Amino acid sequence: MSEQRKKLVEVQDLTVKFGSKRHPFTAVDRVSFHIFQGETFGLVGESGSGKTTIGRSIIRIHPTAGGKILYGGRQINGRISRQLDQEVTQKIQMIFQDPMSSLNERAKVDYIVSEGLYSRGHHLPEKERQEKVAKALSDVGLLPEFASRFPHEFSGGQRQRIGIARALIMEPDFIIADEPISALDVSIRAQVLNLLSQLQKERGLTYLFIAHDLSVVRFICDRIAVIQKGKIVELAESEELFAHPFHPYTQALLSAIPQPDPIGERNKKLLVYDPDCHHYGPENQPSWQEVCPGHFVLASQEELERYRGQL
Ligand SMILES: Nc1ncnc2c1ncn2[C@@H]1O[C@H](COP(=O)(O)OP(=O)(O)OP(=O)(O)O)[C@@H](O)[C@H]1O
Ligand SMILES: [Mg+2]
């Protein structure tokens, strides 16, 4: 992938803490990555590894304890101007994991989809707002008449489409899709993925796609970062990551993917990641290393040499 490409999002040494000053808990620990304009970047890791926290820090819901987040070259974490804040609120949208709980049950679809427009300050004429809602609904394959209904009248897949319409109405450039299909029936997952990919092609959108399962991101992501306990342990182009997973945690995640072939599946060895397997001494601490062009791993010098030997 050429380094000439424009970096739309840059996350540099991002640290996010929760808890009190006396008992802080580091949910995201000096995480760095960038996302090129127009690409789909996958962030994969087990529950509690910090994926949602990173997404919520980018959209400025969580304050950051350290590091920088740049959008289009401008810093967007910490104190920023009102104008930039409004711009970020419009340009960056998030789609949530659970369409059953992320939609306000008491509001009509019409309100839910246009909520972001209200928060932008300037009031649209009612007719224009209704037209925008109708367009957003039809863009995600729903009937404009659905605007007058309530969320409970819809299936999981339709509700996720409403969530996508709510993001699209803002005309974003960048969408953070936080496990957008995990809560959906297997039969409708592909439909939602196809919709996201079609919208990306039509509008040149950039995605941060969050998942806890590598198989989901394999075919839709250009590059993938693997996160474990708040730290990114490996990052590479998708096919490269599947062909040469170096970090034992990535290998464990890969071993958990079910195989279509029943004999292979029966004989498969499920790897369990043991963080103590690294034996880091004081002079042998891990750091972010490039094993081969574009393929990074959190490794000690000793591990790096071993990984390079495997190529
Ligand atoms: N608002 C909060 N207050 C306190 N702790 C939090 C808060 N949000 C997240 N955490 C903690 O930070 C860690 C990372 O949480 P996060 O939700 O980012 O994980 P995740 O990778 O998205 O997990 P999942 O796959 O379950 O969605 C967890 O230990 C979580 O308990
Ligand atoms: Mg999450």
CATH class of the largest domain: Alpha Beta
Please tell me the CATH architecture of the largest domain by its name. 3-Layer(aba) Sandwich
Specify the CATH homologous superfamily of the largest domain: P-loop containing nucleotide triphosphate hydrolases
Indicate the proportion of strand residues.
Answer: 25-35%
**Which residues form runs of ≥5 with pLDDT under 50?**
none
- Contiguous helical run count: 11
Largest beta-sheet details: 8 strands, mixed
Sheet with the most strands: spatial strand order: 6-7-8-3-9-10-12-11
Order of helices and strands: EEEHEEHEHHHEHEHEEHHHEEH
Number of strands: 12
Q: Ligands bound here?
A: adenosine-5'-triphosphate, magnesium ion
What is the end-to-end distance?
19 Å
Number of domains: 2
Describe it.
The protein has 311 residues and is α/β, with parallel strands linked by helices. It folds into 2 domains: 223 residues, Rossmann fold (3-Layer(aba) Sandwich); 68 residues, no CATH class. It has 11 helices and 12 strands. The strands form 2 sheets. It has an 8-stranded mixed β-sheet with strand order 6-7-8-3-9-10-12-11, sandwiched between helices. The protein has a 4-stranded antiparallel β-sheet with strand order 2-1-4-5, covered by helices on one side. A hairpin with a 2-residue loop joins strand 11 and strand 12. The protein starts with 6 loop residues before the first strand and ends with a helix. The mean pLDDT is 92. Bound molecules: adenosine-5'-triphosphate and magnesium ion. Magnesium ion (MG) binds next to helix 1.
